[in-house]
Write a structure and sequence with these properties.
This protein is α/β, with parallel strands linked by helices. Helix content is about 40%, strand content about 20%. Helix 5 links the parallel strand 5 and strand 6. The structure holds pyridoxal-5'-phosphate. The site of pyridoxal-5'-phosphate (PLP) has 18 residues, from helix 11 and helix 15.
């Protein structure tokens, strides 16, 4: 058993666990008892793999970016999660969870969403399976993210506004939890990242681990070596990064680099650089590292990319950080936007602003010329075109 994976008590080192109200215990316990058994069943494996292949479009290519490689004087590979159906890695997880929900006999799906990306990925798999779908979203976010709200509605999902607090992601999460408490028997709650009470972080990590599983095979085919020298990914809650790191955790020659959003600057008060600014605490059902005030109030995070705008990180990341297995750095809005434009101009690929944070990290590193460097291109930039246009004044 890897020291970087969850133990039988649901912990990664000091982090993880299930800090939940008693009313939620039956729901979470049912999931904890069933998830591994169901995921290992042949019928589950067969349907999961078939949908990843024919519906999501996997395996996603591992692309050797030649002009990027020239610039950074190393072999830079992009893991193309941007080419997945719905445009990002999130669908890997929602496909997995909908198949699990079906096998648990659930008829109704709920989710929370900030920018709407996870809401869209959830509404998509509910349409695919004909299951009822309710997505909670802060009233402010509903205003800001109209195209994703429209997508969810077109898929047949009900989008419910959260009107409490700052009317953003954490308020939507509270509403979703309240719904789950009130509907324990027929409802499954699809969480969108490697966060939440055990077993969610482990379950989501397993669904996203297909990213590094494929990368290993593709690197071997293309270079004759299955392990890269560096694996780099952005971190909001941390699911694309855990997916990218998963099969390399116990390969000490692979250097793992996680990139958080520094927003306007780590010291600016407008940032989402959790490891730089945070302390241990409990957020959304698990013990991890989070941005909080001296008296333990969660700090409102900021990043230009909605997907990285989260005040915590998943418990496995907290453990990879404190144990020193992975390196955590942060990238500002400006650095990310420049890296997004650079990729577009060098390779003809418009990345999600989230993914652009991982690309910007290349500027801060030095490589040997035959290093193999894999960057997780977690999503495509279509959703961010307005932001890019405004920023660059096109
Ligand atoms: C949601 C999102 C992220 C951040 O989520 P993680 O769980 O940290 O991966 C990163 N990139 C894209 C494209 C996203 O949509």
């Amino acid at each position: 058993m890897s020291k970087y994976q969850v133990n039988e008590k649901g912990y990664y080192g000091n982090f993880g666990g299930a800090y939940i109200p008693e009313m939620l215990y039956p729901n979470v316990e049912e999931l904890r008892q069933q998830y591994l058994t169901i995921m290992q069943r042949p019928d589950f494996r067969a349907e999961f793999n078939q949908l990843l292949k024919d519906y999501v479009g996997r395996p996603s290519p591992l692309y050797l970016a030649r002009r990027l490689s020239e610039r950074y004087k190393a072999n830079v590979f992009l893991k193309r999660e941007d080419l997945n159906h719905t445009g990002a890695h999130k669908i890997n997880n929602t496909i997995g969870q909908i198949l699990l929900a079906e096998r648990l006999g659930k008829k109704r799906i709920i989710a929370e969403t900030g920018a709407g990306q996870h809401g869209v990925a959830t509404a998509t798999v509910c349409a695919l399976k004909g299951l009822e779908c309710v997505v909670y979203m802060g009233a402010v976010d509903i205003e800001r993210q109209a195209p994703n709200v429209a997508r969810m509605k077109m898929m047949g999902a009900e989008v419910v506004a959260a009107n409490s607090g700052s009317k953003t992601l954490k308020d939507a999460t509270n509403e979703a939890l309240r719904d789950w408490i009130n509907n324990p028997v027929d409802t499954h709650y699809i969480i969108g990242s490697v966060v939440g009470p055990h077993p969610y972080p482990d379950m989501v990590a397993r669904f996203q681990s297909v990213i590094s599983e494929e990368t290993k095979r593709q690197l071997l085919e293309q270079t004759g070596r299955e392990n890269p020298d560096f694996a780099i990914a952005c971190v909001g809650g941390g699911s694309n990064a855990i997916g990218m790191f998963y099969h390399f955790l116990d390969e000490p020659t692979v250097r793992l680099v996680a990139v958080e959003a520094a927003g306007l600057g780590v010291e600016s008060g407008e940032s989402a650089a959790t490891t730089a600014l945070g302390r241990e605490g409990v957020l959304h059902g698990s013990r991890s590292i989070l941005m909080q005030t001296a008296d333990g109030q969660v700090v409102e995070p900021y990043s230009i990319s909605a997907g990285l705008d989260y005040p915590g990180i998943g418990p496995q990341h907290a453990w990879l950080y404190t144990s020193g297995r992975a390196q955590y750095s942060s990238i500002t809005d400006d650095e990310a936007m420049k890296a997004g434009l650079l990729l577009t101009r060098l390779e003809g690929i418009i990345p999600a602003i989230e993914s652009a944070h991982a690309l910007a990290q290349l500027e801060k590193m030095t490589f040997r010329k035959d290093d193999n460097v894999v960057v997780c291109l977690s999503g495509r930039g279509d959703k961010d075109l307005d932001n890019y246009m405004k920023y660059f004044g096109f």
